[in-house]
Design a protein that fits this description.
alpha/beta; about 15% strand
């Protein structure tokens, strides 16, 4: 598994599910093996892909959190070439109550994904618009979190609370979690949107992704049609934006892995030299 990427924001309607679905589609289109997990009780990512939400919560992502030993392979539904989906379910709205008295409740998702690590290249998690246990589990299991920030004032202010939660998770559960801010639903011709985009870039200089997702009718229509933007409007502006996002994230993750490999190699060389000196 190369990366686990959570798509998060506690505010709804900011392009979070659209990003989760279309990033998954773009990665799968490049031959990457992708698992998309719908952790939202509304099941929007599931519907976006034209999949009917199962009646039983035991066949959905709810089981990843509620069950002590969920079978991820049985929960994953093939929806396209290289793309698997674990559907959402309304029962996720009750997961905080379910996990209230459970031990290690913050890391259930991370433990559930461990046996599946060699079967996929990327896991994309569509988080619910809340800061409950589902979101905390997603962050704890992730290597990266992409915060979708709609370029308006209200959506921007909502990010502050999310960042506070992420910092706690990063400190206590996921010290290597990488944080990225993604401007979404952007309208480049509106002065207020441009002003907020500048504010995002200024306040998150090392975390703001260069890609900007513009607001287009095709992205909305694709969701209504139960398709990714690749299938619905291949080559459209929305499709191009998500391909750019895919390029950027692959590059970031690749560079990070390269640095980690270099550190590992240097450590191994140092150990060999130390051993050789001791023998001589």
């Amino acid at each position: 598994m190369r990366a686990v990427i959570s798509i998060a924001n506690q505010k709804g309607g900011v392009g979070k599910t659209t990003t989760a679905v279309n990033l998954s589609g773009c990665l799968a289109g490049r031959g990457e093996r992708v698992l998309l997990i719908d952790l939202d009780g509304q099941g929007n990512a599931t519907s976006h892909l034209g999949v009917e939400i199962p009646e039983s919560e035991d066949s959905t992502s709810y089981a990843l959190l509620a069950s002590a030993e969920p079978d991820v392979e049985k929960l994953a539904v093939p929806v396209a070439s290289n793309l698997l989906l674990i559907p959402g379910h309304i029962a996720l709205a009750e997961v905080d109550i379910k996990l209230f008295s459970q031990i290690n409740r913050d890391t259930r998702l991370a433990r559930a994904l461990q046996p599946f690590a060699d079967d996929v290249d990327f896991v994309i998690i569509d988080c619910p618009p809340s800061l409950g246990m589902a979101t905390v589990n997603a962050l704890s299991a992730s290597t990266d979190v992409v915060i979708c920030v709609q370029t308006n004032v209200f959506a921007y202010e909502a990010v502050r609370r999310l960042l506070a939660i992420i910092k706690v998770v990063k400190k206590e559960l996921a010290p290597n979690l990488a944080i990225h801010a993604l401007a979404t639903l952007h309208r480049s011709t509106v002065n207020l949107n441009k002003s907020v985009l500048e504010k995002i870039t200024q306040n998150f200089p090392n975390q703001t992704l260069q890609t900007t997702i513009c607001q287009t009718a095709a992205l909305t229509e694709a969701a209504a049609a139960g398709q990714t933007i690749i299938d619905y409007a291949n080559g459209s502006r929305g499709h191009q934006d998500y391909e750019k996002l895919t390029d950027e994230l692959i590059h970031i993750i690749g560079e990070r892995q390269k640095k980690a490999d270099d550190v590992t190699l240097r450590r191994e060389v140092d150990e060999l030299e130390t051993t050789s000196s001791a023998v001589n």
